[in-house]
Amino acid sequence: MKVLLLQGGAKKKGNTAKVLGWVEEELKSSGHEVETVYLHSKTLKGCMGCAKCKDIPDKIGCAQKDDAPEILGKMIHAQAVVFSSPLYFWGVNAQLKAVIDRTYSLYTNANTPDHASLVEGQRQALLVTGAGPWDNNAEGAFTAFGRMQKYHKAVHAGELFVGGCTTPAAMDSSVKERAVEFARKLTA
Ligand SMILES: Cc1cc2nc3c(=O)[nH]c(=O)nc-3n(C[C@H](O)[C@H](O)[C@H](O)COP(=O)(O)O)c2cc1C
Question: Which of 20, 27, 100, 110 is the least buried, fewest Cβ under 10 Å from its Cβ?
Answer without folding.
Answer: 110
